[in-house]
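## Example pair
The file below holds two records. Each record gives the amino-acid sequence first, followed by its structure token line.
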Amino acid sequence: MDFKDLIAYKKAFQLSMDIYKISKRFPKEETYSLTDQIRRSSRSVCANMAEAYRKRLYMKNFISKLTDSDAENSETSVWLDFAVACDYISKDEHERLYSETGEIGKLINYMKHNPGKFGCNNNNE
């Protein structure tokens, strides 16, 4: 199995692409702040998940990278809050995207609490 086959990865990748498309509408003055931040954090969820999967030989490394992924996912949800507060996205868009961050967070936490199901070797730390 490849990390791209993980449900959490697929959902995180799709969310990142949705955010990219929606953030194209953000004002120019947000280019180097909100637009950049929300794109980077949403993409980092996927990147950290990929790293975690490749480091699954060592459970502590696997969990550490998944924790980073979860943190980036939470950061993305904060940027979504700012986007709706600034009227850059609608409340419906916010609700849909925010809900996705919640779903992704649950999947990441499942992976952290069940590393053996993802090929982690409990004997290596």
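Second record, same layout:
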Amino acid sequence: MQTQEIQIWDVWVPDIGAQGLSFARGRLDATDILLVHAAPEKLNVEVRDDDGSLLAKGTNLPRTVNSPMTRLRRSRDTITREDIWPTEADYGSPVMVAGGEVGMLQKWWNDPGQQEWRWSLEFYNHR
């Protein structure tokens, strides 16, 4: 049986306190794209493999648009940030919420004025 590669995505708020503050740390199947709900104004992100080796990072990534979702994209050893309003193309993408729980985006709706939105995540775990 083939096992899926695991990654740890660690998202920090860099400009709080002496060393920053953890926003979310999630363990998930390897991915190059991770959506983050309600991400802070600025982020530091590190992606590590299950053994702790650093795979990629992004430093002082600023908010790009006032939106409820952020797309973090891994390209080799670099993480970039794009704040988005999800579309159907994002369905099935992993979404990390504050604290580090990761679910899969099932549905998204927002009004044309981007003042309200409704969304659904599916969470799955096993021992």
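Notes on the second record: The chain has a mean pLDDT of 95. Residues 25 and 97 are 9 Å apart (CA to CA).
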